[in-house]
Amino acid sequence: MSQRTTVEMISRRRMLGMLGAGVAFGMGAPAAVLTASDAAAQTPAAQTPAAQTPAAQTPGADQRQNRPGDGTERRQQRRSSRAERRQARRTERTRRRMARRKARSERAMARQEGRNRRRMARRPSTTGTGSNGTRPTGAGTTGQGPARQ
C-alpha cells in the first residue's frame, strides 16, 4: 500500500516517436475505413454494349483526341523554343563580350596616347641647343655626348 508513484519525464525523442506512431495510425485508419464499401462489383459481362461509348471508356479521351497538337508536337515546340532562347542568350553574351573588349582596347589606346603626350612634354625641345641654350642637342642628363653617326 505504500507504493510510491513517480512522475517520469518524457524525453523529446520518446514524444516524437509517439507522435509519429499516432500520425501513422491516423493516416492508415481512414484508408481502411474508406475501402470498406457496400457497393457490389461490376463484371464486364454485366455491362451493355451501349454503355461503352468513347466518352464512357475514359474521361477526357475525346478531348485528348480533338486537341490540335499531340504531345510529341508540343514537346518539340517546347524544345525548339528553349533552343532559340539559349541561342539568343549566347549571341547576346557574345555581343556584350565584344563590346567589353572594344571598350577595353579603346581605354588602353587612350592611356597609351596620354603617356606619349606626357613623355613628349617632358622631352627637351629639339631646336639645336639644350634646355639652357648652352649645350648642343643630344647632351642629356647622363653626361654622355650625342650618338655617333
Give the arrangement of secondary structure elements:
Blueprint: H1 12-35, H2 54-57, H3 61-65, H4 71-122
Can you walk me through this structure?
With 149 residues, this protein is an all-alpha fold. Helix content is 57%, strand content 0%. The chain has helices at 12-35, 54-57, 61-65, 71-122. The longest helix is centred in the middle third of the chain and has 52 residues, at 71-122. It is elongated, with a radius of gyration of 46 Å. The protein starts with 11 loop residues before the first helix and ends in a 27-residue tail after the last helix. The model has no long low-confidence stretch (mean pLDDT 77).
Structure keywords:
149 residues; mainly alpha; 4 helices; 57% helix; 0% strand; elongated
What structural class do you assign from the helix and strand content? mainly alpha
Q: In total, how many beta strands?
A: 0
The secondary-structure element order is HHHH
Low confidence ranges? none
Shape: elongated
Euclidean distance between termini CA atoms:
130 Å
Per DSSP, the total helix count is 4
Specify the helix fraction band.
55-70%
- Percent strand equals under 5%
User: Biggest β-sheet: count, sense, barrel?
Assistant: none
Radius of gyration: 46 Å
Average pLDDT figure: 77
Could you give a short description of this structure?
The chain has 149 residues and is an all-alpha fold. Helices cover 57% and strands 0% of the residues.
